[in-house]
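User: Run a structure prediction on this.
Assistant: Running it now.
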Amino acid sequence: MRQATFDRMVQYFEAQGIEQLFGAVRISNQPARKYARKMGWQPIGLYKDWGIFGGELDDAEIFALRLHDQALAWVVAEERAQAARERAF
């Protein structure tokens, strides 16, 4: 995805009233982590055992489009991690 396309996507979400955008990328997916940064996502931290990948719990790096959304990003990350654990076990 080119930067202009990403910027249009963000503008679309904002026009829909969506104010926070978050993402999580598997730790081992270095190309995706690098790309997220290139597109302007702000890394806010690593989350242990965040989701199920290949049948195993794995770590993820959590991103927010805007740093001031990082507290909410952690709340959402915890909710999704808990849901993943419940599905796995």
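The chain has a mean pLDDT of 87.
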